[in-house]
Design brief:
single chain; mainly alpha
Amino acid sequence: MPHMWWVVAASVVVGLVAAYLIWTAGRVERLQSRAELAARALDAHLLRRAAAAAVLAERRFGVELYAAARIALDASPDEREAAENDLTRQLRGVQLDPGDPDCGAVIAASRRLALSRQVHTDLVRDARSARSRPLVRLLRMGRGRQWPRYFDIDDPTLVVPADVPAA
């Protein structure tokens, strides 16, 4: 009977280790899924901003801004960061009036894009941190998915001039 306690203790330890491994695998999977969803949301916000900038350029500002917006809309995934940075530079060079509905749409889209980019960056950092732990790498818990990638662009928030009242 005294040896029975060792069996019970060993069973409890094995159960705790198994529970920890299941919890860790679930956490890695959840973080990876959230990072992928954030990447899709970021892509949607990038497209909305580029479309709003294209509409604004057609109605008011001209060829350079329109070209940058079209390039951002049509860019392949490898060229996307450079195209979005170019669009941000073009938008910063334009005097935007928040009272104008087209300019307001671009400003609002840029603000939402900045928030989406921050959420995406935080989730990618957390997912990469979880996947880089030694136990996770040893047991290859995230092997079915690619490593989440950061989307490196300039801060897309547009500054509204102080002399123009915001709507």
